Every structure is written in structure tokens, then in C-alpha cells.
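Structure ticket #2291
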Amino acid sequence: MVQEQGLLVELDQYLKAGVHIGTKFRTKYMGKFIYKIRPDGLAVLNLQKIDERIRIAINFLSCYELHDILVIGRRENSWKAIGAFSKATGIRGITGRYQPGLLTNPALEHFTECKLLLVTDPWPDKNAVKDAARLGIPVVALCDTNNESNYIDLVIPCNNKGKKSLGLFFYLLGREYLKKRKIIDKDEEFRYTLADFTEE
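Resolution: structure written out below.
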């Protein structure tokens, strides 16, 4: 299924976090990322492709200043990971309900601008995705096997519902973003642990 060398973390860490466990529902677009269907009907995502897409996302995000990126997660399972990511990197994160017009209406008190949007699930975060698309802002989205890819510029296939999966993703993204931006030089300088992103 996957060769361990060259992965961002050990294969075992990916497996323990369940980043590859999808849903029983599969969209046509996500089919190319699915490795197999388990006997219980759950789709299993290809770990090599997950790792490749996370690397692409890291390279993509590192082209932007931290104040130009906005991360959004409506579902509560993403709040801990987004909060830790924001604290570690300084990148803005919005959890909970997306206020209509947040990106498009300058008259709003909390109006915000960004040059890149990252969402944890394009379905509950669809209003933010549509606003970004309207403005021509690139959208990066974590997509499970049941997600559509409308208005999304970069799909990262993964389990976007599990707290451990989301925690591992944002831990890796935060660490590697800071390295790419030369804010830190090596892994050891990242002052946060995986537990900071996953444990309550």
C-alpha cells in the first residue's frame, strides 16, 4: 500500500491517527484516492497519496505570509487542532459558524481579508468556500471520501472527521510551514507536541 521511506512521519503514526479511514460514501472525484474498500464498507484512502498531497499543501502554503492565510473549521472536531495550529504559527483560524459575508462584506465588524483559504471540510464550510471562489481566493480543503471538489483548488484526501487525524495533519502542516518559511530550522525547534493538537 505504501512505502515507509520518505513519509513526513512514520507510517505507524499515520495509521494510529486513522488519517486513511474514509466513509462508506464515495464521490466520483475522491475515487482516485481510494486504496480499497473494507469488508465493513468503509473506504480506505491511499496513504502515499495523502502524504504527497500534504507535501503539496505545505509547499503551497509556504508561498504565503502567515497573515495572508485563513483556516476555517465549522465542525467541533477540528477546533482543538486549528487552535493549536494558530498558536504555533500565528496563522488565523476561525472555528464554529462562518459569518455570512465575512470575506466579502467590508461593512461587517469582523470583515477579514485573506489570499489563501484552508477549510477542514468543504461541506459544512461551503459558504466560506463559495465566498473565496467568488473573490478568486485559492481554496485548499481536507476531503474525505464523501466530499465533492467544487470550487476547490487543492484537495487533500484524508479522514477530516477524526480528532486524531485532524490533529496530526495540523501538527505536520504547522511544523513544516515554519521550516519552509525559515522561522525554524529543524523539527526539534518546533515547540509543540502532537498532543497539543489532539488531546483535550
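Closing remark: DSSP finds six helices and seven strands in the chain.
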